[in-house]
């Protein structure tokens, strides 16, 4: 990920509602959520949410998929991973043992088998 792409992602997440949307969609991976359900769970007006979803889609952090009459929003896990890697690329000055607690915080939700399945569905 280059700096411009990272900055666009950070800008998209720098607004409280958009950050809440992103975190809610992460929670609902791999199924995703329809826009109406996102609005209901976050208590955000539909027209306001539409604008926030558009910004997140344009940033590449989420994607929209039409399923029948609904649009389902899902996190682009590859983009989220690239953003995290961008932040942590030079972590700990070449001393990986310092990063062990950070990695340990991610392990409960990120087993290797679930990662492969999630990434395959993110394509």
UniProtKB/TrEMBL annotation:
Keyword Manganese: no
Alphabetical list of InterPro entries matching this protein: ArsR-like_HTH, HTH_ArsR_DNA-bd_dom, Metal_resp_trans_reg, WH-like_DNA-bd_sf, WH_DNA-bd_sf
Matches recorded under CDD domains: HTH_ARSR
Domain HTH arsR-type: start-end pairs: 1-95
Residue ranges the record marks as coiled coil: none
Molecular function per GO: DNA binding; DNA-binding transcription factor activity
Keyword vocabulary terms for this entry: DNA-binding, Transcription, Transcription regulation
Cited PROSITE patterns: HTH_ARSR_2 (PS50987)
Name of the molecule in the record: HTH arsR-type domain-containing protein
């Amino acid at each position: 990920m280059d700096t411009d792409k990272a900055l666009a992602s950070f800008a998209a997440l720098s607004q409280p509602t958009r950050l809440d949307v992103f975190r809610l969609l992460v929670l609902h991976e791999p199924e995703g959520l329809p826009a109406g359900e996102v609005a209901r769970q976050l208590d955000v007006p539909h027209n306001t949410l539409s604008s926030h979803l558009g910004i997140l889609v344009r940033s590449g952090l989420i994607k929209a998929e039409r399923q029948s009459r609904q649009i389902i929003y899902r996190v682009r896990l590859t983009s989220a991973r690239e953003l995290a890697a961008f932040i942590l690329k030079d972590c700990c000055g070449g001393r990986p043992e310092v990063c062990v607690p950070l990695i340990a915080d991610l392990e409960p939700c990120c087993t290797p088998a679930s990662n492969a399945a999630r990434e395959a569905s993110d394509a």
